[in-house]
TrEMBL record:
Transmembrane listed as a keyword: no
Domain HTH luxR-type residues, every copy: 144-209
Residue ranges of domain Response regulatory in the record: 5-119
Keyword Phosphoprotein: yes
Annotated signal sequence range: none
Listed Gene3D superfamilies: 3.40.50.2300, Winged helix-like DNA-binding domain superfamily/Winged helix DNA-binding domain
CDD domains hit by this protein: LuxR_C_like, REC_NarL-like
Source organism (scientific name): Occallatibacter riparius
Protein name (database record): Response regulator transcription factor
Pfam families given in the database record: GerE, Response_reg
InterPro entries found in the cross-reference section: CheY-like_superfamily, NreC/VraR/RcsB-like_REC, Sig_transdc_resp-reg_C-effctor, Sig_transdc_resp-reg_receiver, Tscrpt_reg_LuxR_C, WalR-like, WH-like_DNA-bd_sf
PANTHER family: TWO-COMPONENT RESPONSE REGULATOR
Amino acid sequence: MQHPRIIIADDHKMVAELFREVLSPEFDVVAMVADGQDLVTAAAHLKPDVVLADIAMPVLNGLDAGHQVKEVSPATKIIIVTMNPDPEVAAEAFHRGMSGYVVKTCDSSELINAIKDVLRGRTYLSSGVSRDDVAVLRWQNKKFVDEQQRLTPRQIEVLELLVQGRRMKEIGQRLNLSARTVAFHKYRIMEVLGAKSNADLIKYAVRNHITGA
Protein backbone atom coordinates (compact mmCIF):
# COMPACT_ATOMS: atom_id res chain seq x y z
CA MET A 1 0.00 0.00 0.00
CA GLN A 2 1.38 3.39 -1.02
CA HIS A 3 1.83 5.88 1.79
CA PRO A 4 0.41 9.42 1.40
CA ARG A 5 3.05 11.76 -0.01
CA ILE A 6 4.02 14.81 2.03
CA ILE A 7 6.12 17.96 1.58
CA ILE A 8 7.44 19.66 4.71
CA ALA A 9 8.08 23.41 4.47
CA ASP A 10 9.93 24.95 7.42
CA ASP A 11 13.02 27.14 7.51
CA HIS A 12 14.16 25.51 10.76
CA LYS A 13 15.99 22.39 9.61
CA MET A 14 15.83 20.69 13.00
CA VAL A 15 12.04 21.09 13.09
CA ALA A 16 11.68 19.72 9.57
CA GLU A 17 13.89 16.74 10.40
CA LEU A 18 11.85 16.04 13.52
CA PHE A 19 8.61 16.12 11.52
CA ARG A 20 10.07 13.67 9.01
CA GLU A 21 11.15 11.30 11.77
CA VAL A 22 7.70 11.39 13.35
CA LEU A 23 5.86 10.92 10.07
CA SER A 24 8.06 8.43 8.23
CA PRO A 25 6.44 5.24 9.62
CA GLU A 26 3.07 6.15 8.05
CA PHE A 27 3.82 8.74 5.37
CA ASP A 28 6.25 9.28 2.50
CA VAL A 29 8.07 12.61 2.91
CA VAL A 30 8.93 13.41 -0.71
CA ALA A 31 10.59 16.80 -0.10
CA MET A 32 11.66 19.27 2.57
CA VAL A 33 11.97 22.94 1.65
CA ALA A 34 12.99 26.03 3.60
CA ASP A 35 11.08 28.87 1.90
CA GLY A 36 7.67 29.53 0.42
CA GLN A 37 8.76 29.89 -3.19
CA ASP A 38 10.57 26.55 -3.13
CA LEU A 39 7.40 25.04 -1.68
CA VAL A 40 5.30 26.24 -4.61
CA THR A 41 7.88 24.92 -7.09
CA ALA A 42 8.13 21.54 -5.37
CA ALA A 43 4.36 21.16 -5.10
CA ALA A 44 3.89 21.95 -8.78
CA HIS A 45 6.39 19.23 -9.68
CA LEU A 46 5.60 16.55 -7.10
CA LYS A 47 1.83 17.01 -6.59
CA PRO A 48 1.90 15.82 -2.95
CA ASP A 49 -1.14 14.64 -1.06
CA VAL A 50 -0.39 16.94 1.88
CA VAL A 51 1.83 19.94 2.59
CA LEU A 52 2.90 20.90 6.11
CA ALA A 53 3.87 24.58 6.05
CA ASP A 54 5.12 27.01 8.66
CA ILE A 55 3.87 30.60 8.33
CA ALA A 56 7.09 32.54 8.95
CA MET A 57 9.30 31.48 6.04
CA PRO A 58 11.70 33.48 3.83
CA VAL A 59 10.79 34.75 0.34
CA LEU A 60 7.09 33.84 0.64
CA ASN A 61 5.15 33.24 3.86
CA GLY A 62 3.27 30.02 4.42
CA LEU A 63 -0.21 31.49 3.89
CA ASP A 64 0.67 33.06 0.54
CA ALA A 65 2.65 30.00 -0.52
CA GLY A 66 -0.19 27.71 0.47
CA HIS A 67 -2.64 29.73 -1.59
CA GLN A 68 -0.33 29.41 -4.61
CA VAL A 69 0.10 25.68 -4.02
CA LYS A 70 -3.68 25.28 -4.31
CA GLU A 71 -3.48 26.96 -7.72
CA VAL A 72 -0.77 24.65 -9.09
CA SER A 73 -1.95 21.48 -7.31
CA PRO A 74 -5.64 21.83 -6.35
CA ALA A 75 -5.91 18.32 -4.88
CA THR A 76 -3.12 18.94 -2.37
CA LYS A 77 -4.26 19.43 1.22
CA ILE A 78 -2.36 22.06 3.18
CA ILE A 79 -1.86 22.13 6.94
CA ILE A 80 -0.34 25.20 8.56
CA VAL A 81 1.99 24.14 11.39
CA THR A 82 2.96 27.16 13.48
CA MET A 83 3.79 28.48 16.94
CA ASN A 84 0.97 31.05 16.60
CA PRO A 85 -2.33 30.06 18.31
CA ASP A 86 -4.09 33.30 17.27
CA PRO A 87 -7.67 32.44 16.14
CA GLU A 88 -7.63 35.30 13.63
CA VAL A 89 -4.58 33.83 11.89
CA ALA A 90 -6.20 30.39 11.89
CA ALA A 91 -9.40 31.81 10.39
CA GLU A 92 -7.38 33.57 7.68
CA ALA A 93 -5.63 30.28 6.87
CA PHE A 94 -8.96 28.52 6.34
CA HIS A 95 -10.22 31.51 4.36
CA ARG A 96 -7.26 31.07 1.99
CA GLY A 97 -8.02 27.42 1.37
CA MET A 98 -5.92 25.61 3.95
CA SER A 99 -7.34 22.36 5.30
CA GLY A 100 -5.72 22.35 8.73
CA TYR A 101 -4.11 24.53 11.37
CA VAL A 102 -1.86 22.89 13.96
CA VAL A 103 0.11 24.53 16.76
CA LYS A 104 3.67 23.22 17.12
CA THR A 105 3.26 22.66 20.86
CA CYS A 106 0.85 19.79 20.13
CA ASP A 107 1.68 16.10 20.56
CA SER A 108 3.03 14.23 17.55
CA SER A 109 -0.14 12.11 17.58
CA GLU A 110 -2.22 15.24 16.97
CA LEU A 111 -0.18 16.12 13.88
CA ILE A 112 -0.69 12.60 12.52
CA ASN A 113 -4.43 12.80 13.23
CA ALA A 114 -4.58 16.17 11.47
CA ILE A 115 -3.02 14.68 8.35
CA LYS A 116 -5.40 11.73 8.38
CA ASP A 117 -8.40 14.03 8.83
CA VAL A 118 -7.55 16.32 5.91
CA LEU A 119 -6.91 13.29 3.70
CA ARG A 120 -10.50 12.26 4.46
CA GLY A 121 -11.69 15.64 3.25
CA ARG A 122 -12.20 17.19 6.67
CA THR A 123 -10.70 20.34 8.15
CA TYR A 124 -8.57 20.18 11.28
CA LEU A 125 -8.06 22.79 13.98
CA SER A 126 -5.48 22.27 16.70
CA SER A 127 -6.70 21.80 20.25
CA GLY A 128 -4.49 24.77 21.19
CA VAL A 129 -6.70 27.24 19.30
CA SER A 130 -10.13 28.53 20.39
CA ARG A 131 -12.70 26.81 18.17
CA ASP A 132 -15.46 29.27 19.05
CA ASP A 133 -13.36 32.29 18.07
CA VAL A 134 -12.28 30.69 14.80
CA ALA A 135 -15.87 29.74 13.97
CA VAL A 136 -17.02 33.34 14.40
CA LEU A 137 -14.13 34.70 12.34
CA ARG A 138 -14.69 32.15 9.56
CA TRP A 139 -18.35 33.16 9.42
CA GLN A 140 -17.29 36.79 9.12
CA ASN A 141 -14.90 35.91 6.29
CA LYS A 142 -17.65 34.02 4.45
CA LYS A 143 -19.95 37.00 4.94
CA PHE A 144 -17.30 39.25 3.38
CA VAL A 145 -17.08 36.97 0.31
CA ASP A 146 -20.85 36.78 -0.07
CA GLU A 147 -21.07 40.55 0.18
CA GLN A 148 -18.41 41.04 -2.47
CA GLN A 149 -20.62 39.14 -4.91
CA ARG A 150 -23.29 41.78 -4.27
CA LEU A 151 -21.03 44.69 -5.26
CA THR A 152 -21.42 45.92 -8.82
CA PRO A 153 -18.35 46.20 -11.08
CA ARG A 154 -18.57 50.00 -10.76
CA GLN A 155 -18.68 49.80 -6.97
CA ILE A 156 -15.59 47.59 -6.99
CA GLU A 157 -13.81 50.19 -9.15
CA VAL A 158 -14.76 52.91 -6.67
CA LEU A 159 -13.63 50.75 -3.75
CA GLU A 160 -10.24 50.11 -5.38
CA LEU A 161 -9.65 53.85 -5.74
CA LEU A 162 -10.87 54.62 -2.21
CA VAL A 163 -8.40 52.09 -0.83
CA GLN A 164 -5.64 53.82 -2.79
CA GLY A 165 -6.46 57.02 -0.88
CA ARG A 166 -8.07 58.87 -3.79
CA ARG A 167 -10.43 61.77 -3.04
CA MET A 168 -14.01 61.85 -4.28
CA LYS A 169 -13.26 64.45 -6.94
CA GLU A 170 -10.28 62.51 -8.27
CA ILE A 171 -12.25 59.26 -8.38
CA GLY A 172 -14.99 61.06 -10.29
CA GLN A 173 -12.50 62.37 -12.84
CA ARG A 174 -10.95 58.93 -13.33
CA LEU A 175 -14.31 57.18 -13.76
CA ASN A 176 -16.09 60.05 -15.50
CA LEU A 177 -18.57 60.41 -12.65
CA SER A 178 -19.72 63.37 -10.58
CA ALA A 179 -18.43 63.64 -7.02
CA ARG A 180 -22.01 63.21 -5.83
CA THR A 181 -22.32 59.92 -7.73
CA VAL A 182 -19.03 58.70 -6.25
CA ALA A 183 -20.30 59.59 -2.78
CA PHE A 184 -23.46 57.61 -3.45
CA HIS A 185 -21.42 54.58 -4.57
CA LYS A 186 -19.33 54.83 -1.40
CA TYR A 187 -22.49 54.99 0.71
CA ARG A 188 -23.90 51.88 -1.01
CA ILE A 189 -20.60 49.99 -0.63
CA MET A 190 -20.50 50.73 3.09
CA GLU A 191 -24.15 49.76 3.45
CA VAL A 192 -23.63 46.42 1.66
CA LEU A 193 -20.46 45.57 3.58
CA GLY A 194 -21.69 46.83 6.92
CA ALA A 195 -18.61 49.06 7.09
CA LYS A 196 -18.56 51.95 9.54
CA SER A 197 -15.40 53.73 8.40
CA ASN A 198 -12.72 53.94 5.71
CA ALA A 199 -10.61 51.66 7.91
CA ASP A 200 -13.30 48.97 7.59
CA LEU A 201 -13.26 49.36 3.81
CA ILE A 202 -9.48 49.02 3.70
CA LYS A 203 -9.56 45.93 5.91
CA TYR A 204 -12.20 44.34 3.68
CA ALA A 205 -10.35 45.24 0.47
CA VAL A 206 -7.01 43.88 1.67
CA ARG A 207 -8.60 40.66 2.91
CA ASN A 208 -10.31 40.13 -0.44
CA HIS A 209 -7.40 41.34 -2.59
CA ILE A 210 -9.28 44.38 -3.94
CA THR A 211 -6.40 46.83 -4.05
CA GLY A 212 -6.28 47.95 -7.67
CA ALA A 213 -3.19 48.18 -9.84
